[in-house]
UniProtKB/TrEMBL annotation:
Species, as recorded: Devosia psychrophila
Segments for region (2-C-methyl-D-erythritol 2,4-cyclodiphosphate synthase): 238-396
Cofactors demanded by this protein: a divalent metal cation
Enzyme Commission designation: 2.7.7.60, 4.6.1.12
InterPro entries: IspD (IPR001228), IspD/F (IPR026596), IspD/TarI (IPR034683), MECDP_synthase (IPR003526), MECDP_synthase_CS (IPR020555), MECDP_synthase_sf (IPR036571), Nucleotide-diphossugar_trans (IPR029044)
Binding residues annotated for 4-CDP-2-C-methyl-D-erythritol 2-phosphate, in chain numbering: 244-246, 270-271, 292-294, 368-371, 375, 378
Site, as annotated: Positions MEP for the nucleophilic attack: 159, 215
Protein family according to the UniProt entry: In the C-terminal section; belongs to the IspF family. In the N-terminal section; belongs to the IspD/TarI cytidylyltransferase family. IspD subfamily.
Role, per record: Bifunctional enzyme that catalyzes the formation of 4-diphosphocytidyl-2-C-methyl-D-erythritol from CTP and 2-C-methyl-D-erythritol 4-phosphate (MEP) (IspD), and catalyzes the conversion of 4-diphosphocytidyl-2-C-methyl-D-erythritol 2-phosphate (CDP-ME2P) to 2-C-methyl-D-erythritol 2,4-cyclodiphosphate (ME-CPP) with a corresponding release of cytidine 5-monophosphate (CMP) (IspF).
Catalytic reaction annotation: 4-CDP-2-C-methyl-D-erythritol 2-phosphate = 2-C-methyl-D-erythritol 2,4-cyclic diphosphate + CMP; 2-C-methyl-D-erythritol 4-phosphate + CTP + H(+) = 4-CDP-2-C-methyl-D-erythritol + diphosphate
Identification of the protein by name: Bifunctional enzyme IspD/IspF
Matching HAMAP family: IspD, IspDF, IspF
Length: 396
């Protein structure tokens, strides 16, 4: 269950001078990628997520007209806040502006990271159920050398212990606000919000980041961003299908699409027998060539007995993310005579979207009957069929 309120602060108060070495007069956050300003893409990425309560951009005092020109009209996008003289000071200004609302959680995002995948954002939010802070990271793959003078190697670092930090970095609002207020009273500049949380004694978790969620810093980064947006980085669309069936047994309700629906029976299975989520999970796994649900969660393994099927769905989504892909859309059809499904469809879409970190407009849930024919017509069980469309890097 996600918290009731999740606020997002997008830090856009810098001048972006390093990305303007090619002669551009526009700060990097207002320069276009694929015909749309970077900041506009970053803001829209969070507005597309149904679990985000509000989005606040922290901007430079000289950029009010540029920001207004983005032309946003969304009740969840709050008035921009003028930032400070450093990133740390700008984040504090954003936190102060949110203080009257007291959101449960806050996500702090660099404006110059327009490609943060929904799955990564969702993973950060989920980690905050157990930790006070969380951030996406990438394992460092290059050998890292330490030097005291920039000319001679002094030591080689153990890269197995090194991770590159990304955003959004998420926190429980009251705790990070308090930590930032304390940090503002000392003569030290912290490199990111996670470091402030660590300094304040908060537990900070790491979740898997994504290679495309890089920070646009120099002119050449715009060429990379254009390739990502344009889809000419050897991406391809793959389609997977899933099919599952479970019989009824005596009970008090069925789990379908992550929602428990009152009924005089339940579905029989090793886990919670959520036939809709099983079909969806198989469809996603099929699209990325990763077998089926039984390969990853064998019914012979007792640890999965009674397990919520959202666990299986999240695992499939994580595999897509780790492979550098993204889920484009999902479609599931549930076949049964009873219980009635239609009234529960919005809740199912919300659960599926939250589990995978994707917007609900990418999810279709439909229900039909078999006109009283066959075992579903005799109300002996439920069938679900699903398809998944996934964009993945080409393997060749």
């Amino acid at each position: 269950m996600r918290p009731k309120s999740i606020a997002v602060i997008i830090v856009a108060a810098g001048k972006g001078e390093r990305a303007s070495l090619d002669g551009s007069i526009d700060p990097k956050q207002y320069r276009p990628v694929g015909g749309k300003p970077v900041l506009a893409r970053t803001v829209q990425a969070f507005l597309d997520l149904p679990f985000v309560t509000s989005v606040t951009a922290v901007i430079h005092a000289d950029h009010a007209d540029r920001y207004a020109a983005l032309g946003f009209s969304n009740e969840r996008l709050l008035a921009p806040v003028i930032g400070g003289t450093s990133r740390q000071a700008s984040v504090l200004e954003g936190l102060k502006a949110l203080a009257p609302q007291r959101p449960d959680l806050v996500l702090i995002q660099d404006a110059a990271r327009p490609f943060a995948p929904p799955q990564v954002i969702g993973d950060v939010v989920e980690a905050l159920e157990r930790f006070e802070g969380a951030l996406p990271t990438l394992r460092v793959i290059d050998t890292i050398k330490r030097s005291l003078d920039g000319r001679q190697v002094a030591a080689t670092e153990d890269r197995e212990q090194l991770f590159a930090a990304q955003t959004p970095q998420g926190f429980r609002f009251g705790q990070i606000f308090s930590a930032h207020m304390r940090a503002s009273t000392i003569r030290r500049q912290f490199t990111d919000d996670a470091e402030i949380a660590e300094w304040a004694g908060l537990r900070v978790a790491m979740v898997a980041g994504h290679v495309d969620s890089f920070k646009i810093t120099r002119p050449e980064d715009f060429a990379r961003a254009e390739r990502i947006f344009g889809g000419d980085i050897a991406m391809e669309t793959r389609v997977g299908t899933g099919f599952d069936v479970h019989p009824f047994e005596p009970g008090d309700g069925v789990w379908l699409g992550g929602v428990k629906i009152p009924h005089d029976k339940k579905l029989k299975g090793h886990s919670d027998a959520d036939v809709a989520l099983h079909a969806l999970t198989d469809a996603i796994l099929g699209a990325i060539g990763e077998g089926d649900i039984g390969v990853h969660f064998p019914p012979s393994d007792m640890q999965w007995r009674g397990m919520a099927s959202t666990v299986f769905l999240k695992h499939a989504g994580k595999l897509v993310n780790e492979a550098g892909g993204r889920i484009v859309n999902l479609d599931v059809t549930i076949v049964c005579e009873a219980p009635r499904i239609a009234v529960h469809v919005p809740a199912m879409r919300e659960v599926i979207g939250a589990a995978l970190g994707i917007a609900t407009f990418r999810i279709a849930v439909k229900a039909t009957t078999s006109e009283q024919l066959g075992f579903t017509g005799r109300e002996e069980g439920i069938v679900a069929m699903a398809s998944a469309s996934v964009e993945m890097p080409r393997g060749d």
